[in-house]
What does this fold into?
Amino acid sequence: MAKYTTLEQIDLPAVADRYGLKESRLAPLAGGAANSSFRLSSATGEFVLTILDNHDTASAESLAAHTQALFLLGVPTSAVVQAPDGSLITHFDDRPVILKAWADGRVVQPLPVTLLPEAGRILAQLHALPAQSAGLTDIPVGTRRLSSDHEALIPDLPDRKFAAWLTDQLSRIHRAEAASSRPRTVTHGDLFDDNIIVRIDGSLTVLDWETISLDDPLLDLGMAAVGLAQEHGALSPERVKALVSGYEQIAPLSEEDVAALPGEIIHAALIIAFHRYYRHHVRFPDPSKATYYLEMIRFVESVEGVARVLG
It folds into this structure.
């Protein structure tokens, strides 16, 4: 399991000196499943300091470069603050560090339905970026999907009924995707409400680009539906329609896309279901989250009929 950095472990004067900041104060931020983040207040401004506990130098530099490139391309995200030597990351206790501008706002869970069209527009804006845009030339491919190694683990999962269900569902998805010719685009991979800041003026800022990849934009939209369009554990017709309506203002969906979207929403839910089960039952057993994966089974059952709603 990741070894997270605590507030007491940070040598704030040393970190502040690397960025030329004065009169600095540090406070921990809630959330963050993979890294440790803190609000850094100084005489020159407000920032988010993140200790990239689960990264090496190369992956941290890639994350920082992609985040900065997206900001410069007009995607509403936080700018990366350069160190005085121009680097996008520094190091603390042999761990990479990234400093970003503070987004003045808050996480709202669930994201209000009135803001879902804007989330859809941002996702479509991202998908419209040329894959060879400046700073985005080394994006990995398909990293949000289950890898072949992941899928090879499924038959041996202790919950045999879940393993059989997951295998059957994935087989259906793979057959459908084999007939698809949708182009791969830049995707976020994790557009859930805890990765969105609602700013004071009501606009949205998207955070956490650790799952950025080149992939099927419908899978990314499907993942956003899992993250933003649920209500009481089921896919909400009102919420998914609001999300997709905003998306189509930038990137209209074809009839084929509309027909395929429910399957990609299911695909996204299957990915989440596997990772929840594998994390909480196999890698890091956690009895308090032992049934967490079952939520996705109920969610998949609710997706039927969504094509009619979108049409």
